[in-house]
Amino acid sequence: MENIQDVRSLHRYLLLDPVLHDPLEASRRALQSMQKAMPPEVYLIDDPRVDRAPEARLRLYVVPEGSELDQQIERWMVSEKDRKSICGWLSTHYSLHMLGRHLQRMLIQPVPDGTRMLLRFFDPRVLHHLRQILSSEQLGCLLGPIKSWRYPDINGNWNRLTSSSLGLHQPGLTGEQWRSIERLSAINLCIQAWQHNVKGASLPDDASIKVDHLLEKAFHHDIKEQTEMVAFVLHGLATQPDFDDHPIMQKLLRKRRFEKTGYLALTDALGETDWQAIAGNRLQKDQIV
């Protein structure tokens, strides 16, 4: 027997974060009016950590195809300023209220140590990283009733997450996954530096994973100062993922540890021949800083 949900039309929603910029410039009164409309036109998602004013809360908009709002959003998507607020297009059989409640429930996730933490999965940068580190089962639980989630990826292109199963539980993130999420601020900083160096070329889809691998190594070597940390990551991207295992780098890192010399001062003394040796045959000169 065909599932009755499969023959129902999908509803389209826009998830928008107005904290940095609100393209609608919606007032509290306007949002309250949209909430009270029949049927409701917007669902405001609370931040469990902070009591935000209604106009500063994450918003889930109903977007009928061809509506005035739909046309406005099309204009936002070609505006660099406006599109920064767009978390994604969501398609589901669920009503506005039911979808809003699901998103609200997913914000707070259990941690293996017994505590609970906020998961900013609605941020496209976080969502793109979650796509890389979560299993398909975990992603299914996170998406729940959402059949399709289109979001702007790290290259500014529209990417799509899909789910064919209705996950009814929390994703159950592991300790290792949480540690990777906690490094996202540093990951995003390094990705920005990488994008600057490649001058508009697209980064690989798994860029955040490549960067995170190198960040773990940087922290292992106690390289935590921001400029040095970014430089270490860019060196790894320009050479090879385990570049720090090369004898030249091992000697340099020992000198840094025992003589308390800065990482940048030591690597500045390396010549092209050194970097060629460290990289083998895959040196990318534009990445060396």
Walk me through what this model shows.
With 289 residues, the chain is α+β, with helices and mostly antiparallel strands. It has two domains: 4-173, no CATH class; 183-287, no CATH class. It is built from 13 helices and eight strands. The chain has a six-stranded antiparallel sheet with strand order 2-3-1-4-7-8. It is elongated, with a radius of gyration of 22 Å. Mean pLDDT is 89; it is low at 1-5.
Structural class by secondary-structure content:
alpha+beta
Strand arrangement, largest sheet? 2-3-1-4-7-8
Taking pLDDT < 50 over at least 5 consecutive residues as the criterion, the unreliable ranges are 1-5
> What's the number of structural domains?
2
First-to-last CA distance? 62 Å
Protein topology:
Layout (H helix, E strand, L loop, with lengths): L10 E6 L11 H9 L5 E4 L12 E5 L5 H9 L3 H4 L2 E7 L3 H11 L1 E3 L5 E3 L5 H10 L2 H8 L2 E7 L5 E5 L12 H8 L1 H15 L8 H14 L5 H13 L8 H13 L3 H6 L3 H8 L10
Antiparallel strand pairs: 1-3, 1-4, 2-3, 4-7, 5-6, 7-8
Helix pairs in contact: 8-9, 8-10, 9-10
